[in-house]
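ESCALATION

Customer reports they have been waiting on this structure for their group meeting. Please prioritize. Original submission:
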Amino acid sequence: MRIALCDDEPNITEDLEQRIRAYAFKRDYEIECERFTDGRDLLERGKFDLYFLDFCMDAMNGIELAQALKEKYSHAVTICYLTNYDAAAAQIINQGIHAEGFLRKPVDDAQLEEKLDQFYRLSFFNRFELRRGKRYQTVFAQDILYVEADNKQVKLHLFDGVESYNYLLRDLEKLLPAGLFYRIQRSYLVNLQYVDSYDAKSVTLKNGETLPLKAKDFQRAYHNFMFLFNH
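Update from on-call: job pushed to the front of the queue and completed.
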């Protein structure tokens, strides 16, 4: 699990990293943190599983940085704002900038752990191995938008391209985190985390792609996933 911490006060991110490491040790999770004092530097790096962004920064504030990240990664980013005043939440809501959470500074340990537990359920920070020839490659579930069957292969549609593996879709399905991926049609498995909207015939993902929907119980599966995240 990779977490980006961005605040123009280095002591804030240093303290937060120590708290997150203590959380990871207690939960026996593998967590890597990277600290930034400027959002422009953060944008130059690859995608992180979770972003803690200071709401008020001089060079690029939290709202501007969140907008840039969502544009870069088709809105498929998980963001928690750090703020020392309550009006930040109302400002973000009024400007239509979606965030998955807020933490008031100075950060309370119990609230931080609650948020990290919530984000863990949301993103299913699971890794698994897929065979490619004689080698095995580690794949992170949260990097996959959807999986497409292609004869005796599967295509993993990722944020930065497509990768193919010699698996039948039904065999790959057994390796994926339960409750996160759902078969919407014979040839497609979608990551429910990245569903933007759906109707009776199609599912639209957060990157704008639309896939055919044939499964009659998709709504139930999606609602179950949302319940898991919110609880």
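Sent to customer with the following note: Helices lie at 10-27, 39-43, 62-72, 87-94, 109-123, 169-173, 218-230.
Escalation resolved.
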